[in-house]
Amino acid sequence: MFLLVLCVISKQWYQRRVRGDPNELKRTATNISWYPDNAQKLAVAYSVLEFQRSSPGMCMDSYIWDVESPNKPDMALKPISPLVCIEYNPKDPHCLVGGQYNGQLAFWDTRKGSQPIEVSAISASHSDPLYKVIFLTSKTGTECFTTSTDGQVLWWDIRKMSEPTETLILDITKKEKPTLGGISLEYESTMPTKFMVGTEQGTILSCNRKAKSPADRIVASFSGHYGPVYALQRNPFFPKNFLTVGDWTARIWSEDLRDSSIMWTKFHNSYLTDGCWSPVRPAVFFTSRMDGCLDVWDYMFKQNDPTLSLQVCDEALNCLRIQEGGSLMACGSHSGNITLLELSESLSQQQRNEKASVTQIFERETKREKILESRYRELKLKERARSQQEEKSPEDDEENPEELVEEAEKNFWFTVEQEKAGIEKKEREAEK
User: Distances in Å between the alpha carbon of 205 and those of 112, 163, 193, 228, 353?
Assistant: First the structure.
């Protein structure tokens, strides 16, 4: 099985053939991580997430590829269960961790071979597939955290993986029972105590690791997707704004607004599978789709439609990852093919006044949503007040029967006295 490497340079396309998953039974490329120091290598996690497709003889290896020698993997990683996600240590390019299908976290040092150096204890690990792992900014450079659909976020130190250092239950009801399953994570090094979790129920959770009590760790929730949140990332230039990808849309949010996103793409005919911001251009982000298309969105150019839609392959694109320099993009497909894209200068170099323009866009859209949100709440209050006036309370409807009889008697005797007085008046007039 071959895959194509496409290079976009000044509107010209160049292609060459390199190998995909080298195994006979093809598996999905579920996650990609670029080598930290340069764009020479990338690690790819291969797994079969559909339980019905898995077979006892299926290979469990994942691979590190050298971009310059794409016909053969540079190194095989041999986990005890297929890898769902993988991540290089940004402080040590020889070290990487992988989240396994059985919920365990494995740690490799590539200088010491293909076998993992250490694997978390299965009794202390996730009970569902481990979908996302991210390294934290720390003095040791050995701390990371993970999430899974079992409803937990776990913190680890790769020097001692017998048990997690901390645990968070994804429970917005504050009953300490998992109510949401984690799919994606977001961590920004400039805000070391904050992190975000995208769930399989479509909710995004904003959390604070250093909250006073476990119940207060989940600070806010954002609801806007109809299915799992497959991608979650803060804008590298504007951390208050973050991108989410799920169902048929990609959405941009502001931390100041919880009821609605400030910008969103149109509803696509095909399901969206992943997305990320450009690390060099604040107005550009990328999304991948089930129909094999990669969409490039540039809000400096237009906002209603993608600036560029590229048919990368004829099968589902499952994941994507852009290199830190912003000029190379790697996309993973359903059958394990990895496509490398070289972006043109217009997409990999910041434009003049771009930062100021994006600031204005985000501020304008946030202000617009705040006005709409305020107006919506005002209308709801007016409607509630109107309905309360029209509908009497049950206490007003219930009248005392004794009071009704007493009032009826008063009215009766009043009427009798009036008639009696009228008769007497007529008699007196007749006598005269």
Answer: 38, 24, 14, 13, 33
Per-residue pLDDT, averaged over 109-127, amounts to 95
Tokens (6 digits) for 224: 């806007």
Taken in order 70, 71, 75, 78, the sign of the CA dihedral is positive
Phi first, then psi, for residue 117 (nearest 5°) are -70, -40
The 10s digit of each residue's pLDDT in 97-108 is 999 999 999 999
Query: 10 Å Cβ neighbour count for 308?
Result: 16
Six token digits for residue 119: 């694997």
Q: Which helix (H) or strand (E) holds 185?
A: strand 182-187
Q: What is the pLDDT of residues 188-219, one digit of tens each?
A: 988 889 999 999 999 999 999 988 887 789 99
Q: Are 89 and 97 in contact (CB under 8 A)?
A: yes
- Sheet of 28-34: strands edge to edge? 28-34, 41-47, 62-66, 75-77
Q: Which of 249, 239, 254, 107 minimizes the C-alpha distance to 186?
A: 239
User: Residue 40: which region, alpha, beta or left (left: phi > 0; alpha: psi -120 to 50)?
Assistant: alpha
Tokens 């000029």 belong to 327
Residue 99, CB-side half-sphere exposure with 13 Å CA sphere: 33
- How far apart CA 245 and CA 224 sit, in angstroms, is 10
Please state, in angstroms and rounded to a whole number, the distance separating the CA atoms of residues 319 and 32.
7
Least Cα distance to 62 among 37, 80, 40 occurs for: 80
Who's near 378: CB < 8 A, 6+ residues apart? Answer: none
Distance of CA 152 to the CA centre of its chain: 15
Going by DSSP bridges, is the β-strand pair 2-9/338-342 parallel, antiparallel, or unpaired?
Answer: parallel
Lowest-pLDDT range, 69-78, 236-245, 248-257, 398-407?
A: 398-407
- Write down the H helix ranges in 327-400: 345-348, 354-390, 394-397
Alpha-helix runs per DSSP H in 136-200: none
Site of tokens 């959390």: 207
Nearest Cα neighbor of 248 from 197, 195, 291, 309 is 291
Phi, psi at 370, each rounded to 5°: -65, -40
- Taken in order 110, 123, 103, 192, is the CA torsion positive or negative? negative
For 77, how many CA atoms within 13 A lie in the half-sphere containing its CB?
A: 35
List the beta strands (DSSP E) in 268-348: 272-277, 284-289, 293-298, 308-311, 317-322, 328-333, 338-342
* Distance in angstroms (rounded) separating the CA atoms of residues 27 and 334: 7
240 Cβ contact list (under 8 Å, min separation 6): 234, 254, 255, 256
**pLDDT tops 60 at residue 43:** yes
